[in-house]
Design goal:
Layout (H helix, E strand, L loop, with lengths): L9 E4 L2 E4 L19 H9 L5 H4 L4 H13 L3 H14 L4 H13 L3 H14 L4 H13 L3 H14 L4 H13 L3 H17 L3 H15 L1
Antiparallel strand pairs: 1-2
Helix pairs in contact: 3-4, 3-5, 4-5, 5-6, 6-7, 7-8, 7-9, 8-9, 9-10, 10-11
Organism: Nostoc sphaeroides CCNUC1
Pfam families: TPR_11, TPR_16
Keywords: Repeat, TPR repeat
């Protein structure tokens, strides 16, 4: 029985980087701007609709990240990937850009590319639970459920209250045939969703539990 794991991406808001929908984390600094010497390459990005020509020369990595985020929210995943890629060119240590590009790649079915981005993000920040969660999803989609479980377990060591990890680990356990452990994880996720007032997610977790108990 297959259930859908939850993916998420990050957004910036008033100087704070946070996960889209679920949780908050510390902002990563961004540096660098596109200068006139790079104008030819900037035109290439202009052609795929990243920005208007007069503004290209002053865009920062954070500006491009936000453009990628906007495109990702609207479903323009290839445009989002292009924007995140340019943000990374300006700031190679921009962990959030790697994470969101990885999610966009996963949404397009490129789980190997997503894995590369999550690995790089974890080299920059090895203590980010939600990146382990995302990499766990990619590993599971590539058929590496054991590796996925390792990532989910590491995520919970970092953040024992991460609801998405309980949810996704529960689904992976169900796929591995560990029904009891799956129900335990999904019940934990349901309880947290209920505490957070996320009734739709709470009900979804309960529905999966009911299916597993049949």
């Amino acid at each position: 029985m297959l259930f859908i794991k939850q993916l998420l991406f990050r957004q910036l808001s008033i100087g704070v980087a946070k996960t889209f929908v679920i949780a908050t984390l510390a902002i990563f600094s961004t540096t660098g701007t596109i200068n006139q010497s790079n104008y030819a390459s900037d035109i290439k990005f202009l052609e795929i609709g990243l920005t208007d020509a007069p503004k290209v020369a002053t865009l920062t990595a954070e500006d491009l990240f936000n453009q990628g985020l906007d495109k990702q929210k609207k479903g323009d995943l290839r445009g989002a990937i292009a924007a995140y890629t340019e943000a990374i060119r300006l700031n190679p240590k921009y962990a959030l850009a790697y994470i969101n590009r990885g999610v966009a790649r996963a949404q397009l079915g490129d789980n190997k590319g997503a894995m590369e981005d999550y690995n790089q993000a974890l080299r920059i920040n090895p203590n980010d639970a939600l990146t382990y969660n995302s990499r766990g999803n990619a590993r599971a989609d590539l058929g590496d459920n054991k590796g996925a479980m390792e990532d989910y377990n590491q995520a919970l060591r970092i953040n024992p209250n991460d609801v998405l990890v309980y949810y996704n680990r529960g689904i992976t356990r169900s796929e591995l045939g560990y029904k009891k452990g799956a129900i335990t994880d999904l019940q934990q996720a349901a309880d947290i969703f209920k505490q957070q007032g996320k009734i739709e997610d709470y009900q979804k977790a309960l529905e999966i539990i009911n299916q597993l108990q049949k």
